[in-house]
């Protein structure tokens, strides 16, 4: 009888890929985790219990066939593992790097619940796809039949690119329009290289282009351009994401030296590409030699504090109004930041800023957690008389993002939006009340995860494919 390749979680402990020492990784923007070797990937995959109800799969927004590709990895069938992985995920090597697995698949692993430590799903997913790239198993789209229908996609982030990939597989003509000079959206300019090295994103963009996706970059879509796109294509997908930064209306908030997270991260990522960035070179968006305070507790805040460390800040502090247990960002990212020298000031909120010609400090009020708010989270309350000033040369606001006013930008007052300004689109299909206009990702959900944008893009593409198929059937009758 063949030896059982799985169910080894009792004999083999959980093991992550080696993480570079904090002192070494602080010096560059390279990814902090090494790759699994083949034997280690197979060993860790063999810990999967192959449970009858795979909670890892059901808690993945893409419903990836995780137990299947873990078993294939454990038995050395890596090309099949890759094919299984990419069947449900357009960008498995990206999700393997940046998904908060601790909150999704790994956080719901059955053996984790039994005290044996979760399977390292994300690291194995990354290993499988990186191996596929190395071996030439990743191929550009080659549809069996080219179709005449075309779709215009506004926004080259993960939602738009996932839809483009699915549509091209069906032979539909696809053009992606984006305001930036490189495709990828926040994958390219928002997420730092130590979490997602940029060549990983660029090779995906190149693969899509090789597969027939047309990119129109440096393209600001206004009313005239939207009308042109809608007239040119049989369907339009809005996948712009949410880029309007939430602000703070308090004393001193307009002082120089107080910056938006998206501006700070974009400047840093552009420098990683070797671009000329005036606001970085003149010091405005550069943390070198500065006391940095980041306000916020999400993943964007974690990106900002860890970027500041790498740029050579003299000190980096993060203010968050709740405690560690209630912060929205990844606990793994908090740990990485602490290892690298970031100081977290929990239960601390800004009430204003000091300085004359530029910011010199943040006026901080200490908080305590009171009764739960409408969402069930404990609401922070001010502790009277506990205020103090946190000295700062650079303050970065990482308070989240809101949608831009797309009905005005696009000259489409009939574009349906919710009271939050997000586009009102049908669940699963992304269809709006405007004929032939769809929307996916953060512009529908609000600021969310990359994996959800991918899910929305794929679902929307499938709905459009089915709609075109129904049209063709009617025309044939």
Automatic annotation (TrEMBL):
Taxonomic superkingdom: Bacteria
Residues of the FAD/NAD(P)-binding domain: 151-457
Domain called Dihydroprymidine dehydrogenase: residue spans: 25-136
UniProt-listed InterPro entries: DPD_II, FAD/NAD-bd_sf, FAD/NAD-binding_dom, GltD-like, Helical_ferredxn
Pfam families the UniProt entry points to: Fer4_20, Pyr_redox_2
GO MF annotations in UniProt: 4 iron, 4 sulfur cluster binding; metal ion binding; oxidoreductase activity
UniProtKB keywords: 4Fe-4S, Iron, Iron-sulfur, Metal-binding, NADP, Oxidoreductase
Cofactor: [4Fe-4S] cluster
Protein name as catalogued: Dihydropyrimidine dehydrogenase
């Amino acid at each position: 009888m063949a030896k059982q390749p799985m169910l080894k979680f009792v004999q083999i402990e959980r093991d992550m890929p080696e993480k570079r020492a904090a002192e070494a990784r602080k010096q560059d923007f390279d990814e902090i985790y090494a790759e699994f070797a083949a034997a280690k990937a197979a060993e860790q995959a063999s810990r999967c219990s192959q449970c009858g109800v795979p909670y890892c799969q059901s808690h993945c927004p893409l419903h990836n066939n995780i137990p299947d590709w873990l078993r294939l990895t454990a038995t050395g069938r890596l090309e099949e593992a890759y094919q299984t992985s990419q069947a449900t995920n357009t960008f498995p090597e990206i999700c393997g790097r940046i998904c908060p697995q601790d909150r999704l698949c790994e956080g719901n692993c059955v053996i984790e619940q039994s005290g044996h430590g979760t399977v390292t799903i994300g690291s194995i997913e990354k290993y499988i796809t990186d191996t596929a790239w190395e071996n030439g198993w990743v191929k550009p789209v080659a549809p069996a039949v080219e179709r005449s229908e075309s779709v215009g996609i506004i926004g080259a982030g993960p939602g738009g690119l996932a839809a483009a990939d699915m549509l091209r597989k069906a032979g539909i003509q696809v053009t992606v329009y984006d305001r930036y000079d490189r495709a990828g959206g926040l994958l390219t300019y928002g997420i730092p290289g130590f979490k997602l090295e940029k060549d990983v994103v660029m090779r995906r963009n190149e693969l899509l282009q090789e597969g027939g996706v047309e990119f129109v970059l440096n393209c600001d879509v206004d009313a005239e351009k939207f009308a042109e796109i809608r007239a040119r294509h049989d369907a339009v997908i809005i996948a712009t994401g949410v880029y309007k930064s939430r602000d703070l209306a308090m004393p001193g908030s307009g002082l120089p030296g107080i910056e938006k997270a998206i501006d700070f991260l974009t400047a840093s990522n552009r420098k990683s590409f070797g671009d000329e960035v005036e606001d970085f070179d003149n010091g405005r968006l550069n943390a070198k030699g500065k006391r940095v305070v980041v306000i916020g507790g999400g993943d964007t805040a974690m990106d900002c504090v860890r970027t500041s460390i790498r740029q050579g800040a003299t000190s980096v502090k993060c203010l968050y109004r709740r405690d560690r247990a209630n912060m929205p960002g990844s606990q793994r990212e908090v740990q990485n930041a602490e290892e690298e020298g970031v100081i977290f000031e929990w239960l601390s909120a800004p009430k204003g800023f000091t300085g004359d010609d530029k910011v010199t400090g943040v006026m901080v009020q200490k908080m305590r957690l009171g009764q739960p708010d409408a969402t069930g989270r404990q609401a922070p309350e001010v502790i009277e008389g506990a205020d103090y000033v946190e000295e700062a040369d650079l303050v970065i606001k990482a308070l989240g993002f809101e949608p831009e006013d797309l009905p005005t930008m696009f000259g489409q007052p009939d574009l349906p939006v919710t009271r939050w300004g997000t586009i009102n689109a049908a669940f699963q299909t992304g269809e709006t009340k405007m004929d032939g206009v769809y929307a996916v990702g953060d512009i529908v959900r609000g600021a969310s995860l990359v994996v959800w944008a991918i899910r929305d893009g794929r679902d929307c593409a499938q709905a459009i494919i089915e709609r075109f198929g129904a049209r063709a059937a009617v025309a044939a009758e």
